[in-house]
Amino acid sequence: MKKLLYIGCALITLGIIVFAIGFFASGSDIYALDIETKYFLIDLDGSRSDVTTVSDTFLPSEVESIDISDTWHNVEFGLSSDNMVHVIYAQDEFKSYDVSLNGGALSVDYSSQLGWDFKLVSINFGKGRSTDLQVLLPEGFKPEINVKTTSGDVDITSASSSLSIDVQSGNISIGSLDCQSLRVSSSSGDMELGDLTVDGNCTLETISGNINTGKVCSQSLYVYSTSGSMYMESSDSDEFTARSTSGDIEIGQFSVDISAQLSAVSGDIWFTLDGVPESYFINAASNSGDIDLPAMRFGGDVNISVNTTSGNIDIQVK
Question: What is the CA radius of gyration of the chain?
Answer without folding.
Answer: 24
